[in-house]
Amino acid sequence: MASRWRVLWVNVLSTAALLLAIEYGSRLVMRVDFPDPLVTDQRSDWKLTREYDPLLFWRMRARIERNGETLTNSLGLRGPEVEPRAHGEFRILSLGESTTFGIRLRYEHTYSARLEEELKQISDRPVRVVNAGVPGYSLFQGVTYLKYRGLSLEPDVVLVYFGYNDFLPVSFRVERDAAADPTAAGVTDRELFELRQRASYRFTYALAERSNLVRYLLFGRQHDLAIATDSTRPRVPEADRRRLLDELAELAAKHQFLLVIIVPWYRSFNEHAPLLRDFCSAAGVPIVDLPEILGELPRPQTDYFVDSIHPNSEGHDLIAKALAREPSLIRHLKEAALRHE
Predict the structure, then answer these.
(1) 97-107 pLDDT, tens per residue?
(2) How far apart (Å, rounded) are the C-alpha atoms in residues 165 and 139?
(3) pLDDT tens string 207-219
(4) Which CATH superfamily is domain 62-167+236-339 in?
(5) Whole-angstrom distance, CA of residue 79 vs CA of residue 39
(6) β-pairing, 57-60 with 65-66?
(7) What are phi and psi of 332, to 5 degrees?
(8) Which of the two residues, 249 and 46, has the higher pLDDT score?
(9) Helices marked H in the chain — which ranges?
């Protein structure tokens, strides 16, 4: 019996030694990282700013330096560090996509930073607007971030700015995704999230985080695969958008923060607006309808945008001023000030 155990242990140790040798050998021969988690052929210049996230698909890397500016803090959020909430501080969490993040803008020119300055002028209390915008994010990712991470920042107000990305077609890496898991080729954000919550996926991901060999087996060729899209399926279908908006309202009631829906402002896209307006009207949720508020401007819209999607610094300033005039936001700020007197 003792000899059998010795043989078993020798086999186990030999196998472990072989696997370790292969693992470290693979690291010396070819280091394999996780593939770009944003499955798209757009904005390749931002690829190195993203990293894989098991809940949110991707997130911004922490402490990114670009063009002499620190783009993200230690949480991977745009702007300065988020310090523990000070006594009497009025805190706003600004959720959104690349416009909220402030693509092509310095932090101080984003509407979140400008809103903070606007509110400081009308309040004696400390005011902080935390910019949690992430390029490419959909409403699904925004709500998921709020549920699992954003609430820990203790916001008094949550601003929500999502639209264009929800309507983008689902996309996938052609060969590897389709061959490895047919259900992963062209899935919506919600379906992808549910796939990744399976125990088998979480176990495989945990191994891949720690092993270069496992990453090679899973992703070795994926960097070079073509990107395909399924134009018949948006990332966040209307039924999911409705459910997510209801979920936001429930979170606001449960955690006692003011929810403010922003109807995003684009030059040539408005498919997102009807559902947002209907939801806010039915649910009694405050809405800042930017296309309506900014419909009449002294100059052509092109003067306020860097492209068809993203406002420039002057456009962000208009957004901040529109938010700073929202009655429910001002009332909430004043009521919070009275509670802390």
Answers:
(1) 999 999 889 99
(2) 8
(3) 877 788 777 777 6
(4) SGNH hydrolase (3.40.50.1110)
(5) 26
(6) unpaired
(7) -65, -40
(8) 249
(9) 2-29, 98-101, 111-120, 139-148, 174-180, 189-196, 199-210, 212-219, 238-255, 273-283, 290-293, 313-324, 327-339
Q: Which helix or strand (DSSP H or E) is residue 90 part of?
A: strand 90-96
Q: Where are the domains of the chain?
A: 62-167+236-339
pLDDT tens digits along 110-124: 999 999 999 999 888
Q: How far apart are the C-alpha atoms of 165 and 303, rounded to whole Å?
A: 23
Q: What string of DSSP letters covers 125-181?
A: S-EEEEE---TT--HHHHHHHHHHTGGGG--SEEEEE--GGGGSEEEEEHHHHHHH-
Q: Which two tokens stand for residue 319?
A: 């957004």
Token pair of 2 as six digits: 């003792």
CA distances from 69 to 66, 74, 88, 102, 104 (A): 5, 14, 30, 13, 12
pTM of the model: 0.86
- Residue 294, classified by CB atoms within 10 Å of its CB into exposed (0-12), middle (13-18) or buried (19+), is middle
Q: Quick: pLDDT tens for 147-188.
A: 999 999 999 999 999 999 999 888 765 544 444 454 455 788
With H, G, I as helix, E, B as strand and everything else as coil, classify residue 28: helix
Look at the block and give the residue holding tokens 């971030």: 145
Q: Is the pLDDT of residue 7 over 90?
A: no
Q: Are residues 105 and 320 in contact, defined by beta-carbon separation less than 8 angstroms?
A: no
**Residue 136 φ/ψ region, left for φ over 0, alpha for ψ in the -120 to 50 degree band, beta for the rest:** left
Do residues 319 and 290 make contact, with C-beta atoms less than 8 angstroms apart? yes
Contacts of 178 (CB under 8 A, 6+ apart): 172, 184, 185
Cα(308)–Cα(329) distance, rounded to whole angstroms? 29
- List the structure tokens of 8: 């078993």
